[in-house]
Amino acid sequence: MYRKILITTDGSAVSRMTACAGVQFAQQLGAEVLALFVAPEYQYPIYVEIIPPSYPSEEEYRSAMQRAGRDHVQSIVDSCARKGVQCESMTAFSESAALKIVEIATQKGCDLIFMGSHGRSGWGQLLLGSVTNKVLSHSKIPVLVHRLLKEPLPE
C-alpha cells in the first residue's frame, strides 16, 4: 500500500506521540520512514541600523537549527530502530513549513504524509493546525492526520 511515509515533527509532546503512531503504522505496512523537521529561515533583525554583537550569525543559526532538528527527529529514528523500520531523517529550512513538507515528500518519493493536527499549546497550536491545513490543501499525495485521544502531560 504505502512504501515510504514522511513523518513530520516540531519536537512537542503531541508531535512525538503522533510520530510514534506513525512509526507503528509504517511497521504494520512494512514501509520506510522519512523523519522531517522544518525550521524557519534565518531572519536579520529589522529596524536596527547595527546588528547587535549577541545576535547569531546566519551560520550559527543554521547550525543551531540543525542540532535542534536532529534532537527533534531522534525519537522517530530511535523508535524506527526499535521496531526494525528503515528510517532517514532530515532538517529543512523554509518560511512555509507546509509547502516545504509537500516539496520534500515529493522530492523524496514519499507516498504518504503522516502528521498531527496540532503540536503546541496556545498560539503555537493554532500555527501547526494551519500547517496541517495547508499541507492537506497543497499535497497531491495522501495525508494522514493523526489525532490523539488523550493529550500528553505538559512538558
TrEMBL record:
Tell me the ranges covered by the UspA domain, including all copies: 1-145
Show the InterPro entries listed in the entry: Rossmann-like_a/b/a_fold, Universal_stress_UspA, UspA
Residues folding into a coiled coil are: none
A Pfam family per the record: Usp
What's the family? Belongs to the universal stress protein A family.
PANTHER family cross-referenced by the UniProt entry: STRESS RESPONSE PROTEIN NHAX, UNIVERSAL STRESS PROTEIN HP_0031
Tell me what this protein is called: Nucleotide-binding universal stress UspA family protein
Q: Which organism is it from?
A: Pseudoduganella flava
